[in-house]
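Section 4.2 – Deliverable D4.2 (structural model, holo form)

The reporting period included a commitment to supply a predicted holo structure for the target in complex with iron/sulfur cluster. Inputs used:
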Amino acid sequence: MVTEAGGTIRGGQPSIPETEPETKPQRLPLGPIQNIHVFWMAGMSCDGCTITVAGATNPGIEGLLLGTVPAMPKVLLHHPVLSVEAGAEFMQSFKDAYAGTLGDPYVVVFEGSVPDERIAARTGGYWSAMGSEVMAGEAAGGGSRMVPTTEWLSRLAPGAAATIAIGTCATWGGIPSAEGNPTGAMSVADFLSPDYRSAFGLPVINIPGCAPQGDNFTETVFAVLLFLQGLGPLPSFDELGRPSWLYGETVHRGCNRAGYYEEGLFAEEYGSHECLVEIGCWGPVVNCNIVKRGAINHMGGCMEAGGVCIACTMPGFPDKFSPFYKAPPGGIISTTLSRSTGAVIRRLRRLSNRHVSREVRWDKTGRSPSGWGHVPGPDMGIKAMEFFYQKWQHWGSRKPGRNAGEEKRLWGGTRPGLPGDYVDDGVTEGPGK
Ligand code: SF4
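Output (structure tokens):
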């Protein structure tokens, strides 16, 4: 379909001929890199990704900026909010990178989704922009225009050592690209096309999450820089460009509530400590490591803090997971199954828990020294069950302690540890009697 601006629309998302990535060969230094520039740009963004990266600890952003992380080049960050420079001084490095005169390699980091600037241009505006330029041509009359961030992405991505999309807006379009949006927002990869390769031959690297964990970002940057330094292999990425060691598992597998799911115990309201699937958690089908890693400094994380997983790391977010307060339809089958099997398993585990909550000594003496409360001893039924349980547990292996015939030492002395040794009938007073 041909648009008013003369561009074509493919697969529901418009291409932007005037801002398509430019193929510009770059000369990049070989060998260890001393400095690397990071050009951070923001499209349709809330700056949440910036905030989460500022809180990263493994490695921390401070270490990368100061060049104190071993084997890492010093990172020179150009960030529209965090940089000290402003105005023309701030934009100069972007221009140098575009002109190929920067002198050091650079990485592009894009936060927020990429809007279709042609839509805004129809009314003479823009969705997101950074810096201004004097317009060329007599008709412009020497006037200037704001340069859309999209255009900077198009200019700098081809020469970048790597282009990293951070956050779900940049990786999959996210909330700004939800049904009904007016901006035509899309992901960085949608904008740059599947053929995009950085100067070092890498497709777009995606670190999804709304916001993603800062450590997922800095750890990926660390791994990519090690590769660029020639000190490590190219980290493994999955078919969607996500670091596979970070996004290869579902959040459910690392969830601190997964045991409740297995035992068929489900929360009916927020604030409960049980599994949240029936009040809207999508964790079993969502690739994310938030609970394993924690949100910041190994603390927090959605289910850890009592929230359901709304699948913010997934390409289908948000439309495929709304409304967020409803249980995922697919969960009905597995929750019904785990409810029925979990009821049996729970009872058996309770019996085992009682068994392992007693010292061996207490079993032999028949009493517990706890002053805090009554520790129930085993009744006949439990004793019989424990007898067979122990037989099974030690089948084909040696049981702790001594077997029959081993009670005497070689030189004839008796060893302590026989049932009678636990009670000294000669002591009639004192603690423990
Ligand atoms: Fe899985 Fe969500 Fe339940 Fe955690 S709260 S166990 S992620 S379904």
